[in-house]
Write a structure and sequence with these properties.
single chain, 378 residues, alpha+beta, conserved putative lor/sdh protein from methanococcus maripaludis s2 fold, Elongation Factor Tu (Ef-tu), domain 3, OB fold (Dihydrolipoamide Acetyltransferase, E2P), six-stranded antiparallel beta sheet, six-stranded antiparallel β-barrel, 3 helices, 23 strands
Length: 378
């Protein structure tokens, strides 16, 4: 939804005190209100309740993080498995490193484990045999202790061999370089045929996270800042997580929506603005880091307010007011403007639901002057 800047409202020519009439006294005094001819005017019924405020700002898309992808083992880069610039899911293979040496190490570790397992099985059987003989006092304490020590040593060797095999298996898996997160892939930083992974720190590409993604923006207008602070401090019965943020392209197309997740704790004094951030799913990857967009904040409500046409509002140096038609005469009611919309105002004041608002011929009307409703909108 597009929000225009507040339009300038025609200032009433007379000051506030003149609205109640001016002139001399006695016979030359202006006729009493009930003697004046009624002014015909259109009226509209006010609908009072909690009104949604609408705020729209320019914003910029930011990634939640750019991850550097490294070769974790040394070797010759044999193959590139992705297309630069494509979106890749987490664990997608990106490069393949020569795995021969790591496959050989894995096979060696596996054989060593099998050997240790066989030794352990023998030691376990010997320990069980000696234990029974020891209970029958057929072997000495020394033989008993030696069999137990051999059994314990064989069991420890099993654990050591399993750890060696696990490390060899891990190194073998590292010969396929995969995406650590989902996101947009970067350009390759190493060519096929290059020797990578020396000192375990060769970077091969980058992945920029795009789902979810951040939308960052700032607000400077006092109405919005006051409303946001009212939400944060609990003055408005709206929670931060209830605020919805819609994201639009600069051409007006809605791209995504998310939730406001951060409000800065201070106002930037140099420009008088406060920073905010939203997080959106971006499941279709329509938002790209660095992209300029527009955002609309929804969910901030002003209680006991109404939306009325801007043309029904009069302004003086003392403030804004409206005319209500009550008992056949125009009653002046001061108001506060909470927000300016395209052609309307969101207002608060001492009016009630169902009151009849006078919307035209306002320059001819004076407080308590007779008014005849010419048209009425329910």
């Amino acid at each position: 939804m597009k929000i225009s800047k507040q339009k300038t409202i025609a200032t009433c020519i007379c000051s506030a005190f003149l609205l109640w009439g001016c002139g001399g006294s006695g016979e030359q005094t202006q006729a009493a209100p009930q003697q004046r001819p009624a002014i015909k005017a259109d009226v509209v019924k006010i609908s009072k309740g909690a009104q949604n405020l609408q705020f729209e700002y320019p914003a910029r898309v930011r990634s939640m993080g750019a991850v550097e992808v490294y070769a974790k083992v040394a070797g010759t880069l044999l193959e590139q498995l992705y297309k630069e610039g494509d979106f890749v899911e987490k664990d997608t293979p990106l490069f393949r490193i020569d795995a021969d040496i790591y496959q050989a190490a894995y096979n060696e570790a596996l054989a060593a484990l099998e050997t240790r397992q066989a030794t352990f099985n023998q030691a376990e059987r010997e320990w069980q045999r000696v234990s029974k003989l020891f209970e029958q006092k057929a072997v000495s304490q020394k033989e008993h202790d030696s069999a137990f020590a051999a059994f314990e040593s064989a069991r420890a060797n099993i654990a050591n061999a399993e750890a060696t095999l696990a490390r060899a298996e891990l190194n073998l898996s590292y010969t396929t370089v995969t995406a650590p997160v989902s996101g947009m892939s970067g350009v390759k930083l190493q060519d096929v045929g290059a020797y990578v992974g020396t000192a375990g720190s060769t970077m091969v590409t980058t992945i920029t996270q795009t789902a979810p993604i951040y939308i960052e923006f700032s607000i400077a207008d006092s109405q919005a800042i006051d409303s946001i602070n009212a939400v944060r401090t609990g003055k408005i019965d709206t929670k931060l997580e209830d605020l919805n943020v819609k994201v639009f392209s600069r051409q007006g197309e809605e791209l995504d929506s998310g939730k406001l997740d951060f409000i800065d704790s201070r106002i930037d004094e140099s420009i008088g603005s406060i920073k905010l951030r939203a997080i959106v799913p971006n499941e279709n990857n329509r938002l790209i880091p660095g992209q300029f967009v527009r955002v609309a904040i929804e969910g901030i409500k002003i209680p006991d307010s109404a939306v009325i046409p801007q043309k029904a509002v009069m302004q003086t140096a003392q403030g804004s007011f409206i005319y209500l038609l009550k008992d056949g005469v125009a009653r002046i009611v001061p108001i506060n403007i909470a927000q300016s919309l395209a052609r309307d105002f969101v207002i608060t004041g001492m009016f009630e639901d169902g009151d009849e608002l006078i919307t035209n011929n306002l320059m001819k009307i004076r407080p308590d002057s007779p008014v005849e409703a010419e048209g009425s909108v329910q």
